[in-house]
Amino acid sequence: MTVSQGGLYWCRGGRGNPVDYTEYSDSIRINTIVSNKAVVTLRPNWTEIYRGEAMMLRCDIHDRDTEWEYEWETLHYTSLNQNEYKISKASSYDSGNYRCKGKMKNARHISTEWSDYIKLTVSDNAPESVLTVSPSWLSPGDSVTLSCEVEHPSAGWRFYWYKTVPKPSDKSYSYELLPGSTNGTEQDSYIIHGSTHTAGYMCRAGRGDPVFYTHYSKPEFVWSGDVHSAVTLKVSPDRVQHFTSDSVSLSCEGNSTEWRVRRFPEEHYWSYCSNWRSMTGSTCNIDSSQQSNAVYWCESGSGEFSDAVNITIQNADIILVSPVHPVTEGDSVTLGCKLKTGELLSNVFFYQNYKLIQNDTRGELNISAVSKSDEGFYKCKYSGKESVQSWMSVKAVSRPESSSSLIPLIVGLVCGIILIILLLLLYRYRRSKDSHFIRPIQSESTNQNENSSSLYDAGESQDITYSSIELKNIAKAGKRHETVESSVYADVKIGSAADDNLTYTQVNYHNKGKAKKHKGKSTPAATDEAVYSEVKPGTSLGQ
């Protein structure tokens, strides 16, 4: 029998004529399976699921013209639901196989085939984040690159970056988000530009909405020997290398009320020194009975880090005596060599970067003025015994901004001053030119024999110098010459023109001679005239 359509079916038997029927059989439902197949997808589609994450499984049927109901089958139960199966907080209970199918809403006996299983595995442990820093030892101006790696990496992680802050309450750290990482970064690396201080960093990763976070990474540190902090680490004796029999003490100086010394790598016998203590003169003694190499630094209760130092404890017969802190350029430094017996040594060989630099009878290496070229690894050798090598760091002298950077500022100031001076000179020139532009004003009088003239400046009264000038006018009278004498009074005004450094004198003269008759004609008196004369600088007016 072929069934073209699903539904409820039953049967009965019959025989004879008329037919004698049996009772009806129990009914059965036969569903019609359509060719559409459901597909289950995981959103977000991550291969590793962790406890506490929010997840969703979705059942999709490629038939937009039909309304479907959805049936989900899991390891634990079967349920009718929407096409989305949501898990708000995943746990190990949610691990298992999931599949779904669809049923027509108006004909529930018509359904799709079951989808393929999708396996969901939920891990009870949140993933770890591992931070690495490079470089670990800083030179002034170095940038630091942080890299964060997630255990069992998969898609969707964003990375969050933190700076450590010492917690006075215990030996751990709190943390502060670094700039630009509030919403995480897609890149698993973060660059801190121009870092020159000792500092600690952490990272973690997160994904999803709401965000599911990994564990914080362990703090990782970068160290700098430059002293830039308000907290300073003091080492006694002040040298890098020590014998296992030496007593070595550390202390911190600064403005904080509390401090602790930290060490990398940290070991179990170091716990005493990592406790918080008062800043007032207390010290911490290193357990130097065991050979070790470690980095030490101070942390203050106010969250500051000191410069860091390397300290080497050697079970050896000879050590190099070299400063534990960087030496400033221009300072003098003395390197020595010391036996375990404490004898003063002579005939010591000193090496810098494996190169012999001194092999005379002296027992010390004296550098009167240290320069950057003196930075490097040093060791000493005496009577066939050789110390381990230690790094001597040279710190550049702190100088103000270079003169080259100030040149544009100085040139700009000078040009500005010159421009102001030129503008003032131009202004005064304009004023001078206006005030010394002379216009003769002749005063009219009924008495022509005693004319006078006054000169005025614009807005200023001027002194007038009067001088008497005798002029002889020689003119022809008929066939004989006659001398005409006249007395001329002139008022003199002196002005100057700033542009050509000349002094100009205006003379208004007035003829007092009488008109003389010549052959019945009278000679008119000379007309008033204004005469300008050029007076060179330095000319005495009386001359």
Describe what this molecule looks like in 3D:
The strands form 16 sheets. Strands 17, 19, 20, 22, 23 and 24 form a six-stranded mixed sheet that branches. The protein has a five-stranded mixed sheet with strand order 26-32-31-28-29, with no helix packed on it. The protein has six domains: about 5-125, Sandwich (Immunoglobulin-like), CATH 2.60.40.10; about 130-225, Immunoglobulins (Immunoglobulin-like, Sandwich); about 225-315, Immunoglobulins (Immunoglobulin-like), CATH 2.60.40.10; about 315-395, Immunoglobulins (Immunoglobulin-like); about 405-435; about 450-535, no CATH class. Residues about 435-543 have low confidence and may be disordered. Helix content is about 5%, strand content about 45%. It is mainly beta. The protein is built from one helix and 50 strands.
> Considering the protein shown, what is the CATH homologous superfamily of the largest domain?
Immunoglobulins
Counted beta strands: 50
The CATH topology of the largest domain comes to Immunoglobulin-like
Class from secondary-structure proportions: mainly beta
Give the CATH class of the largest domain.
Answer: Mainly Beta
Shape: elongated
